[in-house]
Amino acid sequence: MKHLSKLALGLFLFPVVIFAQEIDYSKTIPFDSSVKTGKLANGLTYYIKKNAKPENKVDLRLVVNAGSILENDDQQGLAHFMEHMNFNGTKRFPKNKLVDYLQSIGVKFGQHLNAYTSFDETVYFLPIPSDSPEKLENGFNIIEDWAFNANLTPEEVNKERGVVLEEYRIGLGGQKRMMGRYLPKMMYKSHYANRLPIGKKEILENFKHDKIVSFYKEWYRPDLMSVIVVGDIDVAQMEQKVIDHFSKYQNPKSKKPRKVFEVPNHAATFVAIESDKEATSAQVQLVYKDHGLPKPIVTVGDFKNELVEGLFTTMLNNRLMELSNSATPPFTYGYSYHGKTWARNKKAYQSIAMSQEDKQLSALKVLVTENERARKYGFTQGELDRSKAEFLASIEKMYNDRNKTESERFVAEYQSHFLEKEPSPGIEWTFSTMKQILPKIELKDVNSLIKEFIKEDNRVVILTGPEKENLKKPTEQEVLNTLKVNVEEIKPYEDVAVAKSLLRKEVVSGSIVKRESDDKIGTKTLFLSNGAKVTYKNTDFKNDEILFEAVSLGGSNLYSNEELKKVQFANGALTEAGFSGLKLNDVNKFMTGKIAKVNPYIGTTTEGLRGSTTPKDLEYLFQMTHAYFTDLNLDPTAFEGYKQKMSAFFKNMSSQPGFFFQQEFNSYLNKENPRFNGLIPTDKTWAETDYTLAYNKYKERFANAGDFEFYFVGNVDDKTIEDYATKYIASLPSSDKKEKATDLGYRMLKGDLKKVVNKGADPKSTVTIMYYGDAVYSSKEASAMEALGEVLTIKLIEELRENESGVYGISARGSMNKVPNGAYSFSIGFPCGPENAEKLTASALKELQKIIDNGPEAKDVDKFKEAELLDNKKSVKENKFWLSNFTKSYINGSNPDEVLQNEEKIKAITAKDIQNVAKKYLTKDKVIGMLMPEKTK
Q1: pLDDT at 12 (0 to 100)
Q2: Domain range holding 568?
Q3: Exposure winner among 132, 326, 585, 790, fewest CB in 10 A?
Q4: Structure pTM?
């Protein structure tokens, strides 16, 4: 934004002829010509696009323009229940055959295969391999069955009740109780206030199966459906499949109209002040609902209006972010936007903040004041220029990667086009048009917006927060009084000058002393004069992406016990101080319109920096890296501001039963570890925190660049990275000292243990079963342990979810570590009803024992392998996979080339390997943790 003229030179030179022409704002936004779209005679709409990212895969999506808003009073919850039934068996895939088949071709239940139900729609996701005609045909068989051939027998419906009720149970808690009280005000006299998708417990428990059959027949019909197909496919072939599978179905002869439910306007300001003993934070929400229906985006003029609104939102939120980064932040975070409420057809201007529990009125006043400041004075030209540059940088990145965009992003776009008539012109049109329109948007266009948003009617204020004996709740009158600010006292926003550079000290370049290449994995390594190593891999996975990590062994394990406790919760504040004498807000302003970020970290056994950028902005990433090594600011006021924000965030976290359980369980397991200081800061730990010590320890950790290895993966140019590495990394201070990851010898409790924690008013439980201990690390055993977790998850879903209907979700995870000590870890976790906790724990352990005694079933091992091979095939085409491989290899002291054997390793895993690790590690001590509700007196 600061260098808009420079940006303009690069972005605007070639379309000068276009800019000389007048823009026809009345012209209709086109639909992307690369997408095959159409409508069958029965009204079903389809979208088909060829996209080879990822290869040999297709994303199928069935979109039904019907959700809980269409339920009758005696059907509440059945739109969502219907979604469950479609996974529970269809005509072609009865019983559990659907999930079983999909797992056999590598599709994981929950992770890949999924769905959701909202007020207005129900959407099914089916990503499948497209490497065989049979898989493609079965993919269409499945979505056809979902649409029209679900098995809704009384037996199957009753079997699924327990699973849906378990999902209902998961949603219980303080947030739901408060929402139940404020929603009638938020959605005043609207049907939306009475149709939460999860439904009502008494209906879910007792409805007769004919009620769900009725919902299915009435609303799952062609004219309310869309089929979306995006992937590595033949478009004409897929269109024929849509015709073959969906043309024969007809709409009901006396079909119900798909009613659009209004959200009535109201003259009064409604105030909801809600509290709950389990509320984890204090929130403020100020809502100004629009009077009319949302305006459709049809013309280029409408597109311009959307851009104007986006610029407005960006500028206002930048102001709110500056306040949250100040020495005395009024809230942990605050933001405003104009968008949908709970209803698809009702938009609102909304300002939201998280504050300290006793500062809700102060936070509300700041939100109101900033809205009024924008209304009275508008924005500055500098703010507008920066926001334009930010928009251009973002759209340019998308445009540069237009041929490397993942299919799922296109699928979501076409879903919005079908459901909400959102335009879908394609990235080429969007990029070109944005470049034409943005320079023509003036301050007056943006400044007039808020006058349309802010009004005294149709207004709702919602305050939610913890309920405590000594905490005074604001009154409704106090809230109403806070909405009235003295506009005469409000001064204009002061737009401070933007910094000229990220660095303030002269950089004296070093040199490259040696170069090496690894042709197997396509890396090049630069050995620098200060001992640092830079390894990079040039890929073509994304045109406009470079990922970065620098890592060194050491970490907080090199701190004394006393030092660790003093700095543990201050480390997060270090970057809040900024660098090179620039405050965080100064850095953010400078970086507007540039895409580069770097975040330093200090882990248990390593320290380092992680970042990402584009080829164009790579130098800024190097400059930030240099600054974080050499010129981090020391600013106690920034720490105090950070502490205020984090205190608001963490203060009531333990009131949430799930978090309280984790805190108590981990404290129990670590009671012999003098370094364990809790999961979150308390008043006591804040008082013990030493920010200056944290700063000095940070400087110590980053004093020797020669002990770091720097990794870059992405669209990297050889000469560019050599130039920047020589200037910004070879110039960093260093020594010959090499540190190692240190094992301090502290371990969690061992034995056959059980810890029960009582917390919460709702009938909710959580079970965690853990096995862990020291072990000699083995790559083969590590792979087998991971496979054991995946295979056991398959069996647990089958038994505890499908057969016993006792859980909504359940998983098992296994792993082995090498650093700082050889160790194994295995866990099983699930939420459930308290009355079933012991029984389901026994069932889970029984499934594990079957594998210990007999080994896993061959079909389940095959399912695991198929899914892993598919994931691996996708991962090797992603920059983040390679970066992770390099850093893990460095930490473990292994050869990064080993990644080339991943496929062989997956294929080589046998049922016997899995049984062996289960026998070796999971037959001894286990630890069970259980969260149970508080006992009633």
Answers
A1: 31
A2: 512-729
A3: 132
A4: 0.95
